[in-house]
């Protein structure tokens, strides 16, 4: 029979995992095997710059926490996995996808975005979405083009009325 102290420690870890899943806007699980210490340090730095971090938990404890949250990710809990918790919906997906392009050892498994389980294909689609700043820039450029066109039309109209 397991020691009561060990059971209590495991319960605390399950509670921590559960809290992190509940409080994160997005979660991504990935396989980190094969990354060097320098690469892991670089990845952690990139994640930290965006208010995220990652942690490695035992799959059995992660499964218990996910079962308590009624989230089924059993098929993605094979082998060692690191779990990244993000403060917004897409930044960690983009960071990990970009990092995986440059470092073949990192493999995305699955994630939770907007409260829904997202497989590898879903994560690839999310990674292709432009960042918030880029979307705002595109919107501003579109609005500026419309204003420019309107000013040209008004200028031509005023010149026509003068004649």
Could you describe the 3D structure shown?
The chain is of the alpha+beta class and 163 residues long. 58% of the residues lie in helices and 15% in strands. The longest helix has 31 residues, at 132-162. The model has no long low-confidence stretch (mean pLDDT 86). A five-stranded antiparallel β-sheet has the order 2-3-1-4-5. It starts with a helix and ends with a helix. It contains six helices and five strands, in the order αβαβαβαββαα.
Question: What is the CATH H-level superfamily of the largest domain?
Answer: Ribosomal protein L10, N-terminal RNA-binding domain
Computed over alpha carbons, the radius of gyration is 23 Å
Order of adjacent strands in the largest pleated sheet: 2-3-1-4-5
Q: Might you state the CATH topology name of the largest domain?
A: Alpha-Beta Plaits
Percentage of residues in strands: 15-25%
Total E-strand runs = 5
Low-pLDDT segments, ≥5 res:
none
Q: Residue-averaged pLDDT, rounded?
A: 86
The major beta sheet can be summarized as: 5 strands, antiparallel
- Number of domain units: 2
Mass-distribution shape: elongated
Distance between the termini: 99 Å
As a percent range, the share of helical residues equals 55-70%
Please give the CATH architecture of the largest domain: 2-Layer Sandwich
Structural category is alpha+beta
Question: What is the CATH C level class of the largest domain, in words?
Answer: Alpha Beta
Number of distinct helices: 6
Order of helices and strands: HEHEHEHEEHH
